[in-house]
Amino acid sequence: MTKDKVLSILKTREGEFVSGEELARNLELSRMSINKAVRSLQDEGFVIDAVPRKGYRLVMADVYNGRAIEAALSPLRVFFHDTIEGSSNNVAKRLADEVVGPFVVVCKSQDGGRGRLGRRFCSPEGGVYFSLVLPNELCGDVDLITTRAALAAAEAIEDVTGIKTAIKWVNDVYAGGRKCVGILTEGIVNLELGGLDKVIIGTGINLNTTAEDYPEELRGTVTSLRDEAGGRMFSRLEMVTKAVKRTIELQKEDFIEAYRSRCFVLGKDIFVIKGDERREAYAVDVDEKAHLVVRYPDGREESLSSAEVSLRIRENG
Predict the structure, then answer these.
(1) DSSP per position, the chain
(2) Considering only CA atoms, which of 283, 284, 290 is closest in space to residue 256?
(3) Cα(149)–Cα(40) distance, rounded to whole angstroms?
(4) Are 54 and 69 in contact (CB under 8 A)?
(5) pLDDT of residue 133
(6) For helices 31-44 and 20-27, what crossing angle results, to 10°?
(7) Which pLDDT value is given to residue 275?
(8) Tens digit of each residue's pLDDT, the chain (317 residues)
(9) Using CA atoms, how far apart are residues 26 and 22, in angstroms rounded to an integer?
(10) For residues 272 and 284, what is the distance between their CA atoms, to the nearest angstrom?
């Protein structure tokens, strides 16, 4: 196929521009055919720069489709979508009644991504979005699933991009002081057995997106790994592979110390937010159940299993 021949030449000259005229001459094709082949490769996930009077340059072979992800995650079953109307967690819930064993739903974008407390998670193309479904027997302590997922995403990001991450209790992953990952875990109950049957771990990573991809009101609070790396792009295939595999591995590993070392609220003055109540506190520790141990001004300590926290900035003077 023409696109395979074009790709072969670009790979041999990776990092260099190859003019459309040279490609057309070598392949005995028209410039229009070359342009069409390049666009087809870009649609498949290859990052190719096209610059007038310079030509084409292969930046990165980021093939991101169902076939590539299935091969990378085998034998895990993969359900891939270019885009999802709604969220990958919702698709995973529908499939959970039919699919036996663990599986993952992956998409390039979604228009109804959800975060904790019903918040919207903006999911433009360029990010990595997946919902991993695990039978209860493959999970560790159910209370620790969300924090395990946060650590898995943080470690995968550092491995793929080299960018240092931190975690805001419970499960928000930050880079450069702003949020780059959102996680939502949900359980599926077996009514006949009266217990948890499966767990859905939904993870969204702002990988190759840019600030312009997000609503203006979010740009001061969210970031992407691409922006943090000065515009450098990363392989979505590598990221989803490492994040999914690490999420599964961590279900059976001791992880609290690694999580604790990344939890940036520890040792800080914070607000504990429960509904309309907002209380000053000091973040003391993360215990073995991943609960946040806080100390209030009256000296009383509490171990939080769920709540919202935010850093409290002391005013000078």
Answers:
(1) -HHHHHHHHHHHTTTS-B-HHHHHHHHT--HHHHHHHHHHHHHHTEEEEEETTTEEEEEEE---SHHHHHHHHTTSEEEEEEEESS-HHHHHHHHHTT--S-EEEEEEEESS-B-GGG-B--B-BTBEEEEEEEEGGG-S-GGGHHHHHHHHHHHHHHHHH----EEETTTEEEETTEEEEEEEEEEEEETTTTEEEEEEEEEEE--S--GGGS-GGGTTTB--HHHHTTT----HHHHHHHHHHHHHHHTTS--HHHHHHHBTTTTSEEEEEETTEEEEEEEEEE-TTSPEEEE-TTS-EEEESS-EEEE-PPPP-
(2) 290
(3) 35
(4) no
(5) 98
(6) 100
(7) 86
(8) 788 899 889 988 877 999 999 999 999 999 999 999 998 887 776 778 888 989 999 877 677 889 889 989 999 999 999 999 899 999 999 999 999 999 999 999 998 655 554 556 678 999 999 999 999 988 878 889 999 999 999 999 999 999 999 999 999 999 999 999 999 999 998 876 667 899 999 999 999 999 999 988 888 899 999 999 998 888 899 999 999 999 999 998 999 999 999 999 999 999 999 888 999 999 999 999 999 999 999 999 999 998 899 998 654 43
(9) 6
(10) 13
Structure token digits, residue 282: 């000091």
What tokens appear for 137 in the block? Answer: 């027997």
